[in-house]
Amino acid sequence: MKTLVFIESKNKISKSALETVYYASEIGETTVITYGNSDNSTLNMLGEYGASKVLIQKTENQLEDTQLTKLITSAADQTNADVIVISQDQVGKAIAPRVAAKLEAGHVSGAVSLPDTSNGFTVESNVFSGKAKANISVNSSKKVISLLPNSFSPKKKGGDISIEELNLDLGETAIKIIEKKSQGEGVPLPEAELVVSAGRGLKGPDNWGIVEDLAVALGATTACSRPVSDIGWRPHHEHVGQTGIAIRPNLYIAIGISGAIQHLAGVNGSKVIVVINTDSEAPFFKAADYGVIGDAFEVLPKLTEAVKKYMASNN
Ligand SMILES: Cc1cc2nc3c(=O)[nH]c(=O)nc-3n(C[C@H](O)[C@H](O)[C@H](O)COP(=O)(O)OP(=O)(O)OC[C@H]3O[C@@H](n4cnc5c(N)ncnc54)[C@H](O)[C@@H]3O)c2cc1C
Predict the structure, then answer these.
(1) Is 23 helix (H, G, I), strand (E, B) or coil?
(2) How far, in Å, CA of 77 to CA of 56, rounded?
(3) Fewest Cβ atoms nearer than 10 Å: which of 98, 226, 240, 242?
């Protein structure tokens, strides 16, 4: 089977990009379609994770959804791809259904397994915000798979790649960028393997120092519950949950968060969940792997100290 993977590659290749490339290469011969200004030495890394070819549309511009759809469907035609794999991140959520519609392909959203091709083409996917799993069979000749980030650990496979520059006419952009605001340094939430998250139990924005101290000690990214971003204690890009970002880190530490169903919907795919809460009846404890019944203002400084000591003794 021929596979085509779409990734964003602005000067560096993200972990979720490597995941999708590795995943696709486990299905069949893999071509990557990307855009931007990445140089060949950056793109060569994709060969190590299973790609045999990279198609790149060189541009300094941020492409919008309709242009990306055109880019991917053109590449799918050029490579005669059977399966198109796109990471289910913010961009992927917007473009994968469009690509599937244009190619008249069946679409598996939220895939967490490789396809079972023993009897057709069936992929396991997360549904109902991760509360259930569904086996989705796709009968169309072309298939689009949106891969849930952090479902596969990319492994190096070695291998050379060829790189081809494209010069497609993707049409004019209908969106004018007026201002760009950086979300700051560090690993962005959807990519983060370690996340320290806090909620209304922290009482106010001035108390976030103890949350940030723990995050820095661990090398983690910070997140928050929705009310916390709604009232402006934390920026909106930190809001996780049903109406925020859905994440699947290896470690999610929830501090002073009750564990409402809408919050859990965005974090219950985390590999290990640690809950710190004063209320032993807080619903979050039911989803936790480890729980601390205690006051965040007492527990966090001690935990941060312990993490620092552990890190120092292991360096
Ligand atoms: C349509 C809809 C969509 C929603 N989407 C989202 C979403 O995407 N994400 C989201 O987060 N919410 C979402 N919500 C809101 C959600 O229902 C909850 O209201 C919200 O998650 C609660 O936030 P919280 O846990 O920070 O606050 P609270 O519910 O007020 O919980 C605070 C917790 O802190 C604990 N606590 C208090 N003091 C301390 C202390 N000193 N130390 C330790 N623990 C302490 C308390 O015991 C309590 O459990 C949505 C709601 C609706 C209706």
Answers:
(1) helix
(2) 15
(3) 242
3-state SS class at 260:
coil
Choosing from 208, 264, 278, 284 the residue with most ligand 1 atoms within 8 A of its CB, the one to mutate for a pocket test is 278
Report the atom number in ligand 1 closest to the C-alpha of 261.
17
Residue 42 has pLDDT above 70, yes or no: yes
> Are 124 and 135 within 8 A, CB to CB?
yes
Confidence check: pLDDT of 183 > 70: no
Q: How far is CA 307 from CA 164, 187, 291, 311, 314, in A?
A: 47, 19, 17, 6, 11
Question: Do 61 and 180 meet the contact criterion of CB atoms below 8 Å apart?
Answer: no
Distance (Å) from CA 196 to ligand 1 centroid? 15
Q: State residue 197's pLDDT score.
A: 98
Residue from 242, 252, 285, 293 whose mutation best tests the ligand 1 pocket (most atoms within 8 A of CB) = 242
pLDDT tens by residue, 203-226: 999 999 999 999 999 999 999 999
Closest-lying ligand 1 atom to the alpha carbon of residue 284: 49
**β-strands 122-127, 132-137: how paired?**
antiparallel
Tens-digit pLDDT profile for residues 233-247: 999 999 999 999 989
pLDDT tens digit sequence for 253-306:
999 999 999 999 999 989 999 999 999 999 999 999 999 999 999 999 999 999
Which residues have CB under 8 Å from 26's CB, separation 6+?
50, 114
